[in-house]
């Protein structure tokens, strides 16, 4: 990395799970560098969703290095995700034909709900063999299977799929960005909305938040969001290492199941 920029640059690891991101600084400029970013980054930059892409260089070994503006700012506090600017940016992302076209051209295929729930059923057999608390898992899977017809046939969009508050960045100039697109998928937008609503948006604020996003909350959308809440929780159970974490996830699953069932009863 040093030989690309020259000896007058100081390069430091930016951390992260991949170890492929770096901060670079000289007397006159600061950059955020990443190795083997997706070509998707160029479209995200052009639409102002991530900090500006400055240059891209291909190494002799085939690696591609991208350089973006290094901006002063902070990740969003969890409560700030309720702000209309967050809803408006996510709505712009989900409605972008250019983002969808680029992600399709680099080989992404839309997630298929039937395949997702089938895979969960298969994983559920492993969980059953481990004698976990299975009633809540079975009821969540039944909900997903019963409502599969509602989540199928939804027009897919580009989804970030990792909308934790630390992936939202607000600069000192008040610019909002959504970073770290390594997990992006083409899917039902409810997959993003479900994560935001489960973790950050109070139930009484869903309608107001969705209005800024550009959507009206109805029974079908609510079902889709609960469907993907179950998907995320059931998937995460396979990666939990401790009994304490398992218990917490199962309790969260039960709580959301209660909410989904209560909503269904009210609608009848």
Automatic annotation (TrEMBL):
<dbReference type="Pfam" id="PF01636">
    <property type="entry name" value="APH"/>
</dbReference>
<dbReference type="InterPro" id="IPR011009">
    <property type="entry name" value="Kinase-like_dom_sf"/>
</dbReference>
<keyword id="KW-0808">Transferase</keyword>
<keyword id="KW-0418">Kinase</keyword>
<dbReference type="InterPro" id="IPR002575">
    <property type="entry name" value="Aminoglycoside_PTrfase"/>
</dbReference>
<dbReference type="InterPro" id="IPR052077">
    <property type="entry name" value="CcrZ_PhaseVar_Mediator"/>
</dbReference>
<protein>
    <submittedName>
        <fullName>Thiamine kinase-like enzyme</fullName>
    </submittedName>
</protein>
<feature type="domain" description="Aminoglycoside phosphotransferase">
    <location>
        <begin position="14"/>
        <end position="217"/>
    </location>
</feature>
<dbReference type="GO" id="GO:0016301">
    <property type="term" value="F:kinase activity"/>
</dbReference>
